[in-house]
UniProtKB/TrEMBL annotation:
The keyword Acetylation does not apply. InterPro entries: Acyl_transf_3_dom (IPR002656), Acyltransferase_3 (IPR050879). The lineage of its organism: Bacteria, Pseudomonadati, Verrucomicrobiota, Verrucomicrobiia, Verrucomicrobiales. Pfam families: Acyl_transf_3. It comes from the Bacteria. The keyword Transmembrane helix applies. This is Peptidoglycan/LPS O-acetylase OafA/YrhL. Residues 41-390 form the Acyltransferase domain. GO terms for molecular function: acyltransferase activity, transferring groups other than amino-acyl groups. Keywords: Membrane, Transmembrane, Transmembrane helix. GO terms for biological process: lipopolysaccharide biosynthetic process.
Length: 405
């Protein structure tokens, strides 16, 4: 779940030195004229799409939803893909912010970086936990000790069981663990060598993620520790998506391999490639499920989709996100920048935090099917709570962040 608000200046000069020899001069000058504005375009729109995918998937969990339609809704609204989008955006934005600060001050002040992140993340997060505590005291909604410790230490990704009201915090735990590691790795790398080092780091996270997915599906031990480390929500299983976002920011800023020219002058090819990569894991899975294929080929298809599908989707989304930043008015990307869509994206963190309270089964609180927890209406209290939270709880803390620039 993305919890970065890109309100800080993020401008970089738009150098596009590496042009193909066959590229017309007119195209070269057009690409050179492309600049990246202070507030990155399109990303709020991608946030909006991401939260809609999550909400669609969670609607299936709400009271009274006809379960015969659950499979169809989950295919249309892939909540896991939405969270994957958030991870890539987080990796990208955190890296972009640090690049911007480094460019202005020659270094990243990690103390102030963490102070800004705390002001963004903790107020609404702790407010949710306070509400969860009140619910536990006054209703039958119960969080066991392990769940409370996991929530308070941002380790819910390693302990995903327990009360479902807070089980969505696994994704926040993944991001917090990323924040603890990545800024130090970033600061340790020489600026001139980052663009070359990043593919190695990304490859390393992919290898770790694939190993986790193999050990998750074929455990070598039945111990709880083994399950916690390798199960699908753990940081190790999702770090590749964050790393891909980090590399995307570094490559875009440095215009590595003429990236900006490739994204802007081969528009349809780039868009088609990114979109196909989003669909590729599911397409491979469907093809592998065909009974006419040899069993060995079917197993290979299932294995590749399971082990690398998330990674392929994250890379595909990174391609689309980068192109939409450079070409916000082109094609479907224009929709990402419509004001209502962008406004929904701004609210996405608040919505994500509070929505689980309302898509839970009424029996979680000892209730008997109140209308506002039904699948038809649960989004009304979820959005209302998010709006109140954003304007009266979160925004006042936003105003304090300038003290830590």
């Amino acid at each position: 779940m993305n919890i970065v608000t890109p309100t800080e200046p993020l401008a970089f000069p738009p150098p596009v030195q590496e042009m193909t020899r066959s590229q017309p001069a007119g195209e070269a000058s057009a690409v050179s004229a492309i600049s990246i504005p202070d507030r990155l375009p399109s990303l709020d729109g991608w946030r909006a799409l991401s939260i809609l995918l999550v909400l669609g998937a969670h609607t299936v969990l709400a009271s009274g939803f006809p379960q015969q339609h659950a499979s169809l809704v989950n295919k249309i609204s892939d909540g896991h893909l939405g969270v994957r989008f958030f991870f890539v955006i987080s990796g990208f934005l955190i890296t972009w912010l640090m690049l911007s600060e480094e460019r202005k001050t020659s270094r990243v002040k990690l103390g102030k970086f963490y102070a800004r992140r705390a002001l963004r993340i903790l107020p609404v997060y702790m407010a949710f936990l306070l509400v969860a505590g009140v619910l536990q005291y006054y209703t039958v909604c119960d969080h066991d000790l392990t769940t409370w410790i996991a929530n308070l230490t941002f380790t819910r990704d390693f302990f995903p069981g327990g009360n479902k009201v807070s089980n969505h915090f696994w994704s926040l735990a993944v991001e917090e663990q990323f924040y603890l590691i990545w800024p130090f790795v970033f600061a340790a790398m020489a600026p001139a060598s980052r663009a070359k080092i990043m593919p190695l780091l990304v490859a390393g996270t992919i290898v770790v993620a694939v190993i986790c997915r193999v050990f998750w599906s074929h455990p070598l031990s039945s111990s709880p520790v083994w399950h916690s480390v390798f199960q699908e929500w753990s940081f190790l299983n999702n770090a590749d998506s964050l790393a891909i976002g980090c590399m995307a920011a570094i490559w875009l800023a440095a215009d590595t391999y003429g990236l900006r020219a490739w994204l802007t002058t081969r528009r349809l090819l780039v868009f088609s490639t990114g979109f196909f990569m989003l669909l590729e894991p599911q397409l491979v899975y469907w093809l592998a499920d065909h009974p006419g294929l040899p069993s060995a080929l079917r197993r290979a298809g299932w294995a590749s989709s399971f082990c690398l599908g998330r990674t392929v989707q994250s890379a595909g989304f990174a391609i689309l996100a980068l192109q939409s930043i450079l070409l916000p008015a082109w094609g479907l990307y224009r929709c990402l920048n419509w004001r209502p869509v962008a406004a929904l994206g701004v609210l996405s963190y608040s919505i994500y935090i509070w929505q689980n309270l309302f898509c839970a089964k009424p029996s979680t609180y000892g209730l008997t099917d109140p209308w506002w927890m039904s699948f038809q209406f649960w989004l009304i209290p979820a959005f209302t709570t998010a709006l109140i939270s954003y304007h009266f709880l979160e925004k006042p803390f936003f105003n304090l962040r300038h003290r830590f620039r």
